[in-house]
Amino acid sequence: MNDAVETCRKTWKRLGVAREVREEMSADLEAELVAAAQDGVSPADFVSGDAAAFATEWALGRGVARTRPRVIGSAIAAVAGAIPGTGFALFVAYGLSSDAFAEMFPRLTAYLGSSGAWALLVLYAVGAAFAYAGAVAGVGAYLRWREDTVVAPTLQLLIVALPFGTAAAIGSAIALAWTQEFSTGGVVVISEVVVGGAIFAAAVGLGRAAAVSRSGGTRATAG
Amino acid sequence: MGAEPNRRSQILRGVLDVCVLAVIADGPAYGYEMTKRLVERGLSPVSEGSIYPILGRFEAQGLVETYREGSNGGPPRKYYSLSASGRDALAAWSGEWRHVRTAVDAVLSNQTEVRS
A85-108: buried (b, 16+ CB within 10 Å) or exposed (e) per residue? Predict the structure, then answer.
């Protein structure tokens, strides 16, 4: 019995249920389990074998689960998810025009420098698509790991809003590069990545905050 | 085709809230007691824990009033009784259910006549 109550207690805490409400619900659950035990119903049967799911449904039904902001975590997850795609785009931007690449692949370099410019645009788009998908997947994985209650609304909002955030991030990085006359110096490139990444992270954070705000801070489900 | 408990559970899920209101209308009860009342009336797919989210929702919506009362040697139990809003909801939801049931019965009886 204690295991079931303890699991429920932890679940309610994770869901942001206020302490006094947690105490009240725990006491109610214990009283119900005692009554059920008198009829031979085990705690596991009472919670249908999944105490955490039972506790979640109950808290959502009562409307006492408060969605945690998780703005910073979402932003970090998005940036981490976008790293492979961003790395690929940086390679296209700087790697393909480097002397080392030209030495290794002289014919390809000559082609890209003349009639293959469209191929560079395609590669940029591929990098951006990877970064976008990676960011959304990263946020989704993080929120599911945290067993968040507004995963789908957050992802739906990010899917729509993130292209604008990405455009703002890329635009800012390009603007910074322009002020530095498109230098490929290490400090300049790092600065561009940091500025772009910060704006991208801020866009994700704003999207997450908007999703939580739209949910009203609490979630209630039917049934 | 044999019985499909999962289908029965799905159907029941849609009307469980009105059934819970109905058993509360019989008299104040704590959660597990309501489950027993439902099972006694043939709603066997109702698991012990499935009504608590519904009770929580009723409480949030003001459809029930609650109080605590000691049990024999055990911890105090939370009892639920219908509020005025709860009685109104029970009347409205019962009417909706009867309307749906009548319509479904009409559809199914036509189907039976076609086959026979």
Answer: bbebbeebbeebeeeebeeeeeee
Q: Is the pLDDT of residue B5 over 80?
A: no
- ipTM above threshold 0.90: no
pLDDT, tens digit (0-9, with 9 covering 90-100), for A171-213: 898 888 888 887 778 888 889 889 988 999 999 999 999 998 8
Non-local CB neighbours of A209 within 8 Å, separated by 6+ positions: A69, A71
Beta carbons within 10 angstroms of residue B83's beta carbon:
18
Residue of A nearest to B67 (CA): A28
pLDDT score of B94 more than 80: yes
For chain B, say whether A12 makes contact (Cβ under 8 Å). Answer: no
Following DSSP, what letter does each residue of A74-124 receive, concatenated?
Answer: HHHHHHHHHHHHHHHHHIIIIITTSHHHHHH-HHHHHHHHTTTHHHHHHHH
B57 interaction partners in chain A (CB closer than 8 Å): 61-63, 220, 222
CB B5 within 8 A of CB B73: no
Give percent of chain A with pLDDT exceeding 70. Answer: 92
Q: Is the pLDDT of residue B86 over 70?
A: yes
**This model's pTM is above 0.80:** no
A contact residues 39-78, partner B, Cβ 8 Å cutoff: 39, 41, 45-48, 54, 57-64
Top residue of B57, B59, B64, B67 to mutate, by most chain A CBs within 10 Å, is B57
Are B30 and A35 within 8 A, CB to CB? yes
Q: List Cβ neighbours of A79 (8 Å cut-off, separation of 6 or more).
A: A135, A138, A197, A200, A201, A204
Q: Which residues make Cβ contacts (< 8 Å) with residue A223, sequence separation at least 6? A: A61, B13, B14, B16, B17, B53, B54
